[in-house]
Write a structure and sequence with these properties.
Length: 243
């Protein structure tokens, strides 16, 4: 693996050469295997790894000519980290299946597939971070999946209020009391804390507005269902005439 990393570093500089004289550069290669680093640095067991050391010598000379120094650095592995151990086990099992021929794997990956794989990895990593983050619990409860498209209102002031509702950072008393800008979290109706849920669904002070909203929603649903029925009847009529 270290040999491959050194080779890739060489390719990068050969494919993208620097014109003119340049200062010497140090490239750090991180590895969690101290034995591998010792073997490479101290040239241990030369007889059994002669071909590898020969390739390394050629690569070292080439990189040195490009004014590049390679520094191997040991970093802690992820031993006893549950999900990393699971990922390692699955990777080893898959590699073994490919090696034994029980699982086929493409030898060439298209650019489109590579982009999809990269996007999938990034999305899963983002989702894991989102689920394990200690902050944003309220927003995570409303938007549990990353990449969810949030539709904002056309009016800017309404959109700002909507965004603050999602972030649990409104001017309602529950939020204001939490941030120290209100003496009490209790709503003026006296029935509960003035949270977004209370104001939108339960507060008696906003019952009239809530009734108007329900009537508007019922009208929108009625129009939508009527439109769907009209489209269905029209399609059916056209299909019947064509037959």
């Amino acid at each position: 693996m270290l040999t491959v990393m050194v080779t890739e570093q060489l390719k990068r500089h050969v494919l993208h050469p620097v014109n003119g004289r340049k200062p010497r550069e140090t490239v750090y290669i991180l590895c969690d295997c101290s034995s591998a680093i010792d073997i490479i640095v101290n040239r241990l067991d030369l007889t059994s790894r002669l071909d590898i050391f020969h390739r390394l010598s050629i690569l070292e000379d080439a990189l040195s000519a490009l004014q590049i120094d390679i520094l191997l650095v040991w970093i802690p592995g992820h031993h006893q980290i549950e999900f990393n151990e699971t990922a390692d086990l699955l990777a080893k099992e898959t590699a073994h299946d490919i090696y034994t021929g029980s699982l086929s794997a493409p030898s060439v990956v298209s650019y489109g597939d590579a982009v999809k794989i990269s996007a999938s990895i990034a999305s899963k990593s983002w989702q894991t971070k989102w689920e394990r983050d200690t902050s944003g619990f309220y927003t995570r409860h409303l938007i549990p999946e990353v990449g969810t498209k949030v539709t904002f209102p056309d009016k800017r002031d309404v959109g700002i209020s909507y965004c603050r509702l999602l972030l649990h950072d409104t001017l309602l008393r529950e939020d204001a009391f939490r941030t120290g800008t209100s003496d009490t979290p209790i709503c003026e109706c006296g029935l509960d804390m003035e949270s977004a849920e209370h104001v939108l669904l339960h507060c008696t002070r906003h019952q009239e507005a809530r009734n108007e909203l329900q009537l508007s929603l019922q009208e929108i649903i009625r129009i939508h269902q009527h439109y769907k029925s009209f489209v269905f009847i029209r399609k059916y009529s056209v299909g019947t005439k064509m037959e």
